[in-house]
Here is the input.
Amino acid sequence: MTGCAETKKAHKLTIIAGEQNIKCTPVSRSGEFDSADVFKSFFTEEALPELKNIKANETLLLKFEGDQPIKVTIKDIPLSSDGGYLYSEKLSPETLLTNKDENFSFVLGKNLASALSSQFDPTKINYRGFKVNATWESGDEKYIFVIKEKEQ
Here is the structure.
């Protein structure tokens, strides 16, 4: 899959890291977006092998098809190996992304909550879930995706 599946009104979102397309999912219900289980679907036996390995300091590009959102924020949430939150979502601040040439991007840095935690082990596979909130004049649309972080 090369982007988020389209729902009835969702704008198609494609996420790219280097040469890799990252699978993402639009979330239509606000309660689902705010649920601690929102990322669990990425951790099924079928879905887990699809997660992409992304290096720290790699740029991730978010491309929306059609009209561009007015505002895009992203939240980076460390996940356990079953897709649950490792820490409270309150420890994951929202980051505002800027639109440059009809693309939004960010550099995958270290997650601050993980860096400060004794539970975080840089030698193991680290899963990170991302919540994207895009705002158009017609309203907000929400998307989620998960990556495996690997050391340089």
Observations:
- The chain has a mean pLDDT of 85.
- The CA atoms of residues 82 and 143 lie 19 Å apart.
- The helical segments are 30-33, 112-115.
- Residues 30-33 form the longest helix (4 residues).
